[in-house]
Write a structure and sequence with these properties.
The chain has 15 helices and 20 strands. Strands 13-12-9-10-11-14-19-17 form an eight-stranded antiparallel beta sheet, with helices on both faces. The chain has a five-stranded parallel beta sheet with strand order 3-2-1-4-5, sandwiched between helices. It has a three-stranded antiparallel beta sheet with strand order 7-6-8, with helices on one face. By secondary structure, the protein is an alpha+beta fold. It has three domains: about 100 residues, Rossmann fold, CATH 3.40.50.20; about 70 residues, Dna Ligase, domain 1, CATH 3.30.1490.20; about 240 residues, D-amino Acid Aminotransferase, Chain A, domain 1 (2-Layer Sandwich). About 35% of the residues lie in helices and about 25% in strands. The longest helix is centred in the middle third of the chain and has 17 residues. The radius of gyration is 21 Å and the shape is globular.
């Protein structure tokens, strides 16, 4: 097992990793930008190093500063959390060159699954269902028009190197194709330095379902059930739950088997998530694979009882998975609300100072956070400030606990998305589990 790990991240995920390391008896090194000097992860870690000024490019994305901190502190491994360098193959190569273990998949896997076209091809070869569309980049508008005509409108244009909804556009008829194609490609070029696009059939009212997987270095691959992530805005998830109200045991097994098949095809190691779209007829289609721990991993932990971050660290330390697929039993229901420092109507960021905060408690309540009274939320980074996770014997109980917890979550000084969630809980379709990726758009 490792003796010391550097956490190349900030916020609640850095705190979460510190908790896991403490249970494993591992020392931690926090890195921080100048504006994060008083952050909770810095206070909780055994050691800390300032790696630069507030802008991410000069701190949390600064390879040289992070590797220098790792070498000065004598760490065995680096945990990237999610975001920042978590899916950056170049950073993994640097870690390898410096004999520092990167807690995550290999460079080869990141290249294969980070490129959406490559991932689509791999899924097809592995026998995992994919939506009708292209298996190669679309080079121009004329080619895009021919493909769209063949598979039928509406279609969706996606960036080959994309993520987070950037470079993604829906096209409903040929009159919009030329303008939309140029806009999407330009956005992808600016966001990722790669303007390549591909095309898929567009599903009007799909559910977004993802399967959590774990894979050790001995070739053992398991899935830990699904998470429903359909409540999202601009392709950014807001509410996640497990199990999905839509899945039967038979569909769950098929999706889990498909996720394991894909992980095996790319020789996956570590924690990862295979994401699918589920249509109204319960057909599912591969969308992408996230080669890291996810923001929403706690809902899986709550219903399975396994600590995903600890498992992730142990796998990186060359330890085998300590359980089998038969040991994975989903008990009860869990739901997570991402608490963002945002205007709950306009969704604009609301940085500022937390004047007062009282977290909810009681049975089935978990809060993953990095804020405290007096903490200054910087304007520089993502607006996520806490994750409220509720667990009950069934969905109905978890929703009752969600209402109790949201209404007793006291946070003064900044606006948050809590009022939006309390209103969503009143929606009859939400209560009945009638969800799709367009739910929030219709609701608003």
């Amino acid at each position: 097992m490792f003796s010391k790990i550097l956490i190349a991240n900030r916020g609640e995920i850095a705190v979460r990793i510190i908790h896991a390391c403490r249970e494993l008896g591992i020392s931690t090194v926090a890195v921080y930008s100048e504006i994060d000097r008083d952050a909770l992860h810095v206070r909780l870690a055994d050691e800390s190093v300032c790696i630069g000024p507030p802008p991410s490019q000069q701190s949390y994305l600064n390879y040289t500063a992070i590797i220098s901190a790792a070498e000065v502190k004598g760490v065995d491994a680096i945990h990237p959390g999610y975001g920042f360098l978590a899916e950056n193959p170049h950073f993994v190569e640097i870690c390898n060159d410096c004999n520092i273990i990167f807690i995550g998949p290999t460079v080869d896997v990141m290249h294969k699954m980070g490129d959406k076209i490559s991932a689509r091809n791999l899924a097809k070869k592995a026998g995992v269902p994919i939506l009708p569309g292209t298996l190669d980049p679309v080079s121009n508008i004329q080619e895009a028009g021919k493909i769209a005509q063949k598979i039928g409108y509406p279609i969706i244009l996606k960036a080959a190197a994309g993520g987070g909804g950037r470079g993604m556009r829906i096209v409903r008829d040929k009159t919009d194709l030329a303008t939309t194609f140029a806009t999407a490609s330009q956005e992808a070029e600016l966001a990722f330095g790669d303007g390549r696009m591909y095309i898929e059939t567009y599903l009007e009212e799909p559910r977004h379902i993802e399967i959590q997987i774990l894979a050790d270095r001995n070739g053992k691959i398991l899935h830990l059930g699904e998470r429903e992530c359909s409540i999202q805005r601009r392709h950014q998830k807001l509410i996640e739950e497990s199990p999905s109200p839509a899945l039967t045991p038979a569909i769950r097994k098929k999706m889990g088997d498909a996720a394991v098949k894909l992980a095996s095809a790319c020789n996956y190691i570590g924690a990862g998530t295979v994401e699918f779209l589920l249509d109204a007829r319960k057909n599912f289609y591969f969308m992408e694979m996230n080669t890291r721990i996810q923001v929403e991993h706690p809902v899986t932990e709550e219903v399975t009882g396994f600590d995903l971050v600890k498992e992730q660290i142990q796998i990186a330390a060359d330890m085998p998975l300590s359980f089998s697929q038969n040991d994975v039993i989903m008990n009860g229901h869990a739901i997570e609300f991402r608490i963002n420092a945002e205007d709950p109507v306009k969704f604009t960021p609301c940085p500022g100072t937390v004047q007062q905060v009282i977290f909810p408690g009681g049975p089935g309540v978990r809060v993953d956070t990095h804020i405290y009274p007096g903490y200054r939320i910087p304007p520089t980074y993502d607006s996520l400030i806490a994750k409220l996770i509720l667990r009950g014997r069934n969905r109905e109980e978890s929703l009752l606990r969600a209402r109790r917890a949201l209404t007793s979550f006291i946070l003064e000084g900044v606006s948050t998305t809590i009022p939006l969630y309390t209103k969503i809980l009143d929606d009859r379709d939400f209560q009945k589990g009638k969800l799709s990726t367009h739910f929030l758009q219709r609701y608003l």
